[in-house]
Amino acid sequence: MQPKNAKAAGTLYIVATPIGNLQDITLRALETLRVVDTILAEDTRATRKLLSHFGIKKPLEKFERFSEKSKEASLIERLSQGECIALVSDAGTPAILDPGASLVLACHTSGIAVVPIPGPSALTATLSASGLIEDGFVFFGWAPRKSNERKEFGLRLSQTPFPAVLFEAPRRLAGLLKALVPSLGGQRAFIARELTKIHETHYFGTLEELSARFSKEGAPLKGELVVVIEAAKRPFHARQEPESFAQAGTKATARALSRMLGLTTKEAYGILQAVRKRKDA
User: Fold this and answer.
1) Exposed site from 143, 155, 178, 262, fewest CB < 10 Å?
2) DSSP 132
3) pLDDT (tens digit, 0 to 9) for every residue of the chain, 281 residues total?
């Protein structure tokens, strides 16, 4: 038996699971988990609790980052022979900063169908509640840990023409905010903690205000964090593009812009393309 509207046998299903509240799982996700042959899970204990809650009994295999490459060949072989497999992460949408991206790519190159079963995502949930996203954003994944890398990260964010979204561990939040203040202190930010759970909390303010707040906190926060930072206000704007820039070729413009902002030519080219797209919109 296959899920409704499923493709032929031998399919990898990327199944999004709740990020906290179990009632957020979709009907389609439940149906898929019930009918696949095997479920790959980053943490079998967490997934077993989910399956037990909904009365689902299926073979469960551990699939973590340290062992995913070693299992990839055998999984591709099983899929090629017609097995249907569901991939889940601890919470949310798999294969985004979680194990699975390499397996998905291997499926594509091997001609095996990959079907996403959309659902909960801490990233999009936070974006929707931030009020800081209008026409695009840049996802940076996990924030850097080392202090010197954080300073460089702040400069990089200040040169990005779109709001930035990133993940951070609770114990490192205060240090990150402090490191970002010199480059982005006046920019507003939204921080979501423990999304969909009992202790869900939101924080909003400028980075300078939030840094001051969390530097005074006693015990560090607990729970997962997603941070959205408002796009930096930059002097270089599409409406103020110098005439010489408008007349120059794209490569020449990128080189000139890189010298102005201290960026690589590739970074400058990306910013230039983004600015021109916004101007043409």
Assistant:
1) 262
2) -
3) 455 544 455 999 999 999 999 999 999 999 999 999 999 999 999 999 999 999 999 999 999 888 888 999 999 999 999 999 999 999 999 998 889 999 999 999 999 999 999 999 999 999 999 999 988 999 999 999 998 899 899 999 998 889 999 999 999 999 999 999 999 989 999 999 999 999 999 999 999 999 999 988 666 788 889 999 999 875 444 334 444 444 455 666 676 666 556 667 777 778 877 777 766 65
The Cα–Cα gap between 63 and 72 comes to 10
| Token pair in block for residue 57 | 């009994």
Q: Helix, strand, or coil here: 224?
A: coil
Distances (CA, A) of 150 to 146, 187, 213: 6, 16, 19
E strand intervals along the chain: 11-15, 38-41, 60-62, 85-88, 113-117, 138-142, 164-168, 188-193, 201-206, 225-229
Single out the residue of 188, 202, 190, 192 nearest to residue 230, CA to CA. Answer: 188
Domains of the chain: 11-120 (3.40.1010.10), 123-229 (3.30.950.10), 238-280 (no CATH)
Interatomic CA distance for residues 192 and 2, integer angstroms:
37
Q: Report the candidate in 267, 247, 268, 246 with the shortest Cα–Cα distance to residue 256.
A: 268
Reported as half-sphere exposure (CB side, CA atoms, 13 A), residue 246 has a value of 9
Predicted model pTM? 0.76
3-class secondary structure, 207:
helix
Structure tokens at 124: 């999009």
Q: Which amino acid is at 141?
A: G
Which string of DSSP letters, residue by residue, matches 238-255?
GGG--HHHHHS-HHHHHH
Alpha-carbon span 95 to 16, nearest angstrom:
10
